[in-house]
Specification:
By secondary structure, the chain is an alpha+beta fold. Helix content is 27%, strand content 29%. The protein has three helices and nine strands; from the N terminus they run ααββββαβββββ.
Length: 244
């Protein structure tokens, strides 16, 4: 029994020495692994050394469009007239390309009227200023089924701008001054206000267009009266098929 006890004592003594050695070895390994982290930590500024005045990295600013979007602006490429979806769009594209060449004034509005036919399309542009038509100042464009656009007729006139706020007579006052003319009440157009260009002048006259009959008899005439004094500036007798 004494031999067994001695043997066990020796065994447990050796085991205790081995455990103590393993523990010390583990502590040394952990200490060695922590040394790099300690060196990094020692290089960082202490919390009390940080300041709100320290520079803050700014975000990178992308190129700006005119409308403010964060993308570089790209040039707009005009679409040729032949690629337009409709004949009206093709005519509008062609007209915009010719505005400078034809001398279209910025105070003139060109209003389109479209006429369809099996052979193609005609788009007639009538010139307006401040909502009033300039009589006879028109551009006609012809558009094929393939969206090819050609100039049919150009009667546009780059005339001076008219003061449409000037004092004028009422149309009934104009008829009173005319004396022998009476308004044709059966006429469809009746009275309209327009700008009329007297031949040889470059400034239109603010005028009335009226369908009248002389002394209530005879054919209906379309007369142009100057709105300021009632003077007759021009006349047009409708074709026979349109007479009443």
């Amino acid at each position: 029994m004494m031999n067994i006890a001695k043997t066990l004592g020796v065994f447990f003594g050796i085991w205790a020495v081995w455990v103590a050695w393993e523990f010390q070895h583990s502590i040394r390994s952990l200490t060695s692994a922590a040394e790099p982290l300690q060196r990094v930590a020692s290089s960082l500024p202490a919390p009390q050394q940080l300041s709100l005045a320290s520079p803050i990295p700014q975000p990178v600013r992308l190129p700006q469009r005119v409308d403010g979007s964060a993308m570089p602006s790209l040039p707009e490429i005009p679409v040729p007239a032949r690629f337009a979806a409709t004949a009206g769009e093709a005519a509008e594209t062609f007209l915009n390309e010719k505005r400078a060449e034809w001398g279209v004034r910025e105070y003139h509005e060109l209003r389109p009227t479209t006429y369809e036919s099996p052979m193609g399309t005609k788009v007639k542009y009538a010139a307006y200023q401040d909502g009033l038509p300039i009589l006879g100042s028109e551009i006609t464009l012809e558009v094929t089924q393939d969206r090819d656009v050609t100039l049919g007729e150009n009667n546009y006139q780059a005339v001076k701008k008219v003061d449409v706020t000037q004092p004028i007579l009422e149309f009934n006052q104009v008829l009173e001054r005319a004396g022998r003319y009476q308004l044709d009440m059966s006429a469809t157009s009746g009275v309209s206000k327009l700008l009329y260009l007297v031949p040889g002048s470059d400034e239109p006259e603010l005028s009335y267009s009226m369908q009248v009959k002389e002394n209530g008899n005879g054919p209906t005439e379309n007369l142009i009266f100057r709105a300021s004094d009632g003077q007759i500036l021009g006349r047009q007798v409708p074709r026979a098929e349109f007479r009443r």
